[in-house]
Amino acid sequence: NAGVTQTPKFQVLKTGQSMTLQCAQDMNHEYMSWYRQDPGMGLRLIHYSVGAGITDQGEVPNGYNVSRSTTEDFPLRLLSAAPSQTSVYFCASSFSGAAALNTEAFFGQGTRLTVV
Amino acid sequence: QKEVEQDPGPLSVPEGAIVSLNCTYSNSAFQYFMWYRQYSRKGPELLMYTYSSGNKEDGRFTAQVDKSSKYISLFIRDSQPSDSATYLCAIPSNTGKLIFGQGTTLQVKP
Predict the structure, then answer these.
(1) pLDDT tens digits, B4-39
(2) CA-CA distances (angstroms) from residue B33 to A14, A53, B60, B94?
(3) Cβ separation B43–A107 shorter than 8 A
(4) Would the CB atoms of A103 and B96 count as touching at under 8 Å?
């Protein structure tokens, strides 16, 4: 199993450009989520999905879109990049979203995004 | 008030020291408590989890929960340079979302 795979690992964008961060998991997990990590801020939830075709907003959704057409893939789209979106982005998956021990989240290696 | 609070540090200790990492939380309904470890330029990985109050030990690591004061701790005995990482507490909410603390960066010096 590859686990959670994120691409690209690094990206530099110009203000106003759009791009898609890819995330794929091969563990047949229903629950997938996107976080951003900034110094001193911990991991902040952007969007999440409890299954194919179902997505919802997290704590910091503005400027980002998601879709979930398959169980395996959960891409994050930046609509019009801004310098405030410079961050490290992590995709995570878990077996379910229930408040139980099987909520263990498996993370990808991260995408380091710089917006200039 | 954030639902989960954690002192971001950084924390620097000599090799062999006992390390104490702590988080507080606000919702008394929380039942499960997790600690993730994140090495530099890597994604977080689950280190330990506990349920309700009490202690759980795994090798040099001990996770402790005090529900009366809404306080969770992670202790590392005989700390090693390889323990240098960021440690994040995490609590699953009743909607299944994981709520993370800010993370504490630990450096163990040889």
Answers:
(1) 999 888 999 999 999 999 999 998 888 889 999 999
(2) 40, 29, 18, 13
(3) yes
(4) yes
Mean pLDDT to the nearest integer, A33-48: 92
Place of tokens 């890597």: B42
Which amino acid does the sequence have at A47? H
Structure token pair of residue B107: 């450096």
> For the stretch A1-38, what's the b/e string if a residue is b when 16 or more beta carbons lie within 10 angstroms of its beta carbon?
eeebebeeeebebeeeeeeebebbbeeebbbbbbbbbe
Q: Do A42 and B102 touch (CB under 8 A)?
A: yes
Backbone phi and psi for residue A39, each to the nearest 5 degrees, phi listed first: -55, 130
Q: Number of CB pairs < 8 Å for A and B?
A: 66
* Chain B residue with minimum CA distance to A47: B97
Let me know the angle formed at the C-alpha of A70 by A52 and A37, rounded to the nearest 5 degrees. Answer: 80
Nearest 10 degrees: Cα torsion B43, B49, B52, B54: -130
Question: Inter-chain contact B42–A4, Cβ cutoff 8 Å?
Answer: no
The position carrying tokens 């169980």 is: A71
Question: Collapsing DSSP states into helix, strand and coil, what is residue A41?
Answer: coil
Tens digit of each residue's pLDDT (9 = 90 or more) over B55-75: 899 999 999 999 999 999 999
DSSP string covering A59-102, please? SS-TTEEE--SSSSB--EEESS--GGG-EEEEEEEES--SSSGG
Please, are residues A89 and A9 in contact by the beta-carbon 8 Å criterion? no
